[in-house]
Amino acid sequence: MKYLIFSDIHSNLEAFEAMLEHPAARKASRFLFLGDLVGYGPNPNEVINRFRRLNVSTQVRGNHDKVVADLESSSLFNPVAAFSAEWSKIQVSGDNQTFLKQLPKGPVVVERFITLCHGSTFDEDYYVFSNFEAAESFKFMETAIGFFGHTHFPIMYLMRNDKIQSVPLNENTHIRLDPNTRYLINPGSIGQPRDKNPMPSFVIFDPGKREIQFKRFTYDFRQTQKKIRDAGLPEILASRIESGI
Ligand SMILES: [Fe+2]
After folding, report:
1. Contact 41, 118 (CB under 8 A)
2. So what's the pLDDT on residue 205?
3. Which residues surround ligand 1, an ion (CB under 5 A)?
4. pLDDT over 90 (residue 125)
5. Could you tell me which of 191, 242, 178 has the C-alpha nearest to residue 36?
6. pLDDT at 28 (0 to 100)
7. Whole-angstrom Cα distance, residue 173 to residue 191?
8. CATH second-level architecture of 3-243?
9. Most CB atoms closer than 10 Å: which of 41, 203, 241, 244?
10. How many angstroms is it from 131 CA to the middle of ligand 1?
11. What is the number of other CB atoms lying within 10 angstroms of the CB of residue 209?
């Protein structure tokens, strides 16, 4: 059994399709998604339609999904995020908005041993950027291994004997999990990476072998940039997918 864990597609169809073409995705038995299907990017409907066809085993909603579903106001977003969320609301079909509305709130426990959440295990909108914030998230996690998104930054937090360590993930990351350690892992983002690397990323988890592999791939971001500009979305949304910030 191999799980593919991915997050933060943000209406980037080209990146999402490139992920699905990746050899590791073709070998994955189950897909687990950590939220933010929409927001920022130019193809909210196409991404939701493709996501629905994929038959993802388990998913949680993200903060952008909530706003585009009209479950929450965009007033707490920064102006660029609010603009793109309001734009996405107009684009999304009624059926797809209903789909976004029923996405579950995290945390969700998969098969009693994997926790999924968007931001943290105690607040779906909380950002985990530091060891301190990871420690808070570990407190409310009932399993030994959990995955989160929201920051768009690939990283792994390890907790052993009440001590926390963080390890940024890179192309060579291939880790054998230690049974006496707890893990909180962020696979990075498909549609808008922010670790100064424009390549989208995901994680493969093989519980039988207790292995984690981190994967990165390229895609045609120029096409996405063109669509962002043609749609009249803020220019920063086009430039940042090229620089990965
Ligand atoms: Fe996000």
Report:
1. no
2. 98
3. 8, 36
4. yes
5. 191
6. 97
7. 21
8. 4-Layer Sandwich (3.60)
9. 41
10. 20
11. 11
Kindly compute the dihedral angle of the four CA atoms of residues 49, 145, 190, 57, in this order, to the nearest 10 degrees.
Answer: -10
Please report which confidence band the pLDDT of residue 19 belongs to, taking 50, 70 and 90 as the band edges.
very high
From ligand 1's centre to the CA of 123, what distance in Å?
Answer: 15
Q: What are phi and psi of 108, to 5 degrees?
A: -125, 135
- Which runs of consecutive H residues, i.e. helices, occur in the chain? 13-21, 23-26, 44-54, 63-68, 79-91, 94-101, 131-139, 221-231, 235-243
Q: Of 197, 138, 134, 204, which Cα lies nearest the Cα of 175?
A: 204
- Residue of 122, 116, 152, 124 whose CA lies nearest to 135: 122
Is the Cβ–Cβ distance between 50 and 21 less than 8 Å? no
Question: What pLDDT sits at residue 139?
Answer: 97
* C-beta of residue 35 within 8 angstroms of C-beta of residue 60: yes
- The rounded distance, in Å, linking the Cα atoms of 36 and 179 is 31
- Please tell me the distance from the alpha carbon of residue 132 to that of residue 138, in angstroms, as a whole number: 10
H/E element, 176:
strand 174-176
Planar angle of CA 80, 187, 182, nearest 5 degrees: 125
| 3-state DSSP assignment of residue 33 | strand
Q: How far is the CA of 209 from the centre of ligand 1 (A)?
A: 30
Separation of CA 160 and ligand 1 centre (Å):
29
Q: What is the spatial distance between Cα 210 and Cα 45, in angstroms, rounded to a whole number?
A: 36
In this predicted model, what pLDDT tens digit does every residue of 92-103 receive, in sequence order? 999 999 999 999
- Measured between alpha carbons, how far is 175 from 19 in angstroms, rounded to an integer? 21
| Amino acid at the residue 26 | R
